[in-house]
Design a protein that fits this description.
The chain starts with a strand and ends with a helix. The protein has three helices and four strands, in the order βαββαβα. By secondary structure, the protein is α+β, with helices and mostly antiparallel strands.
């Protein structure tokens, strides 16, 4: 399973980078495969472990922000591993044709 999610603190002003870093730190420390870009952090693993990481990332932001917004998108595909890499490689292969 791959989950792409975005945690946004509300009520803290426009500069939210340090709050987002708290969430990303939780993801990176989880040991699960992950990627962060300008809009989302993606994490790959089994349902329970991925959802636990998302929950803890939200909690990290919630400790410092009065309100938190969570956007989440999941690709639930049993038996697939290394999807973070293989999905991108497939697109790149088609682009190279």
């Amino acid at each position: 399973m791959i989950v792409a999610f975005s945690v946004t603190p509300l009520g803290v002003g426009e500069d939210v980078g340090e709050y987002v870093a708290d969430a990303v730190r939780v993801v990176r420390e989880s040991g699960l495969p992950n990627r962060t870009d300008a809009m989302f952090t993606s994490v790959e693993g089994e349902w329970d472990e991925v959802m636990d990481v998302v929950r803890r990332a939200v909690a990290a932001v919630e400790q410092r922000a009065p309100r938190v917004s969570l956007v989440l998108k999941a690709d639930i595909r049993p038996g697939v591993t290394d999807g973070l890499t293989s999905k991108v490689e497939t697109v790149e292969r088609h682009l190279a044709e």
